[in-house]
Amino acid sequence: MKFCRLIHSILLIRATNFGVSGKTYMFRISNVGLSTSLNFRIQGHKMKLVEVEGSHVIQNLYDSLDVHVGQSITILVTLDQPPKDYYIVASTRFTKTVLTATAVLHYANSNAPVSGPVPAAPANGFDWSMEQARTYRWNLTSNAARPNPQGSFHYGTITPTKTIVLANSAPLINGKLRYAVNGVSYINPDTPLKLADYFNIPGVFSTNSLSELPSGRAATLATSVMATSLHDFIEVVFQNNENTMQAWHLDGYDFWVVGFGSGQWTPDKRKSYNLVDALTRHTTQVNPH
Ligand SMILES: *[C@@H]1O[C@H](CO)[C@@H](O)[C@H](O)[C@H]1NC(C)=O
């Protein structure tokens, strides 16, 4: 399992789109930036969310959608408005200066250029965003039941092997600003981890440098690897005590995002987990504390 934290960004939208009245078009929106969440919207049109990182979701309609760093979504948009041109907008979220990029949704029989104000992003950022994320549900009809390595497709009934709490931080180590997880800032080794593991090369990485819970220790540098066993089913808690949104990506795996919350995580929060129709995804945002 390899989690990475995604950090920085740029806003790009192709200039003009073109569509026929009455038809429905699919848009796939990816945030390929490194630090900034974005909000996506189309003037005068509802967006039907159908897919999030490979999971089919309950098809709710949205006026705008937050897409965090590393995330991808698919929406369907029906051109059901009077034939003219409409703004397509992406703007940065949770930033002091809001950067906005626009493009044009052009109806084939359009008789008017874009007009009116560029539709605004939702006002209250972090809370709104978390509420929206909670509305994403697995579509249990289209994500048909299938066995997983634990022998059950009911993820909510599998007992986790263990709980790992990962807290991100930005400490100074040897006078340099570093990003750290549970007080350990990762150092990329010269020998690739998989080679070191396969050929049993000692001294490349350590499996005891990173604790499974946040530690109060001073931050250190290490090539930290967390050991788990095949078929383990792990509860991972991301604790963000910083004041910026974080994005965590699990390389090569997906995971169920069973809950979002504020403040410090406690075992009591398990009562509010969605153990029925949470979606599996590869990347999750973690709201600031
Ligand atoms: C689930 O997905 C199917 C398409 O695969 C769709 O027809 C159905 O409306 C979806 N269910 C909900 C509740 O959105």
Which topology of the largest domain does CATH recognise? Immunoglobulin-like
Major β-sheet annotation: 5 strands, mixed
Q: Which of globular, elongated, flat, extended, rod-shaped describes the shape?
A: globular
The count of DSSP E runs of length 2 or more, i.e. the number of strands, is 22
**Helix proportion range:** under 10%
Number of helices: 2
Helix-strand sequence = EEEEEEEEEEEHEEEEEHEEEEEE
Could you list the spans in which at least 5 consecutive residues all have pLDDT below 50?
4-10
Beta-strand percentage? 25-35%
Whole-number tally of structural domains = 2
- What's the Cα radius of gyration? 21 Å
CATH superfamily of the largest domain: Cupredoxins -  blue copper proteins
Indicate the CATH architecture of the largest domain: Sandwich
The structure class reads mainly beta
Identify the strand order in the major beta sheet: 2-11-10-4-8
CATH C-level class of the largest domain: Mainly Beta
Residue-averaged pLDDT, rounded?
Answer: 90
Bound molecules: 2-acetamido-2-deoxy-beta-D-glucopyranose
Notable features of this structure?
289 residues; mainly beta; Immunoglobulin-like; 2 domains; 5-stranded mixed sheet; 2 helices; 6% helix; globular
Q: Outline of this structure?
A:
This protein has helices at residues 125-134, 193-198; strands at residues 2-5, 16-19, 24-30, 38-42, 47-52, 55-56, 61-62, 64-67, 72-78, 85-92, 100-107, 162-169, 172-173, 176-177, 180-181, 184-186, 220-222, 234-240, 246-251, 255-256, 280-281, 283-286. The protein has 289 residues and is mainly beta. Strand 16 (184-186), helix 2 (193-198) and strand 17 (220-222) form a beta-alpha-beta unit.
